[in-house]
Amino acid sequence: MSTTRTGTSCVDAARLGILLNELRLPTIKVLWPQFAEQSDKEGWPAGRFLAAIAEHEIAERARRRIERHLVEARLPPGKTLDTFDFDTVPMVSKAQVTALAAGDGWVGKGANLLLFGPPGGGKSHLAAALGLALVENGWRVLFTRTTDLVQKLQVARRELDLEAAINRLDRFDLLILDDLAYVTKDQAETSVLFELISARYERRSLLITANQPFGEWNKVFPDPAMTLAAIDRLVHHATILEMNVESYRRRAALERKRAPGRPPVHATAKTVVE
């Protein structure tokens, strides 16, 4: 029989291991001998010993949960708030973005975040970076190109499973729909997108990136009434960030062409056109 001596008592380690497995406490199973030895040496009260191993179990569970949620989030790699260049997007406040990364003020209330700006302005990077920060803060997130999700929902509709498919997305506190503008102006596509927006309204959050301002959303939704209804639901509880800057890809290309010693090209804010 495997036993471990702690203080004046002998513990059946094998039996305790089985019990901890039954209770699904794998971290305590690994750590308890080490903590028991330290507890005996330092004369800890039983409550301190129990609290110490319980804290480690909780911390490890949180770490594993975040790992699972990062896998399911499907975030593009390398996009973090630390690598986002706020200097090139002066109209976006770093303090505001930091507050948004906590999630309590909007994700916890089913509100939305809308990022507008031309291609290459950093919308997708910022969206993915916020998604990563939110996962690390305990929220469940899914990042997807809008066209990919719309196609999956269309398949669900053909299989008479659309409502269930949208309901399954409820497990995500935040859906990040990247590149809304690239949805084809097709009644079947835009109708499932509208149903998704309607289903999540005031219940679950959306983060949407789009190249066109609202005034051009008739290019996305062919029905004017549907356009107005979609915009109304999205903006009712929303934060809107306009990132009207020159494409970072174009800036990088210009900087490569510049002769050595010349100053780099910096982004400048453009006038917002509604």
Supply database-style keywords.
274 residues; alpha/beta; Rossmann fold; 5-stranded parallel sheet; 49% helix; disordered C terminus
> Which regions are unreliable across 5 or more consecutive residues at pLDDT < 50?
262-274
The overall pLDDT average reads: 85
Give the tally of structural domains.
Answer: 2
Q: Give the radius of gyration.
A: 25 Å
Strand order of the biggest β-sheet: 4-5-6-3-7
Separation of the first and last Cα atoms: 77 Å
Number of helices: 10
Protein model, in words:
The C terminus is likely disordered. The strands form 2 sheets. Strands 4-5-6-3-7 form a 5-stranded parallel β-sheet. Helix content is 49%, strand content 12%. It has 10 helices and 7 strands. It has 2 domains: 59 residues, no CATH class; 183 residues, Rossmann fold. A hairpin with a 2-residue loop joins strand 1 and strand 2. The chain is of the alpha/beta class and 274 residues long. Helix 3 runs antiparallel to helix 5.
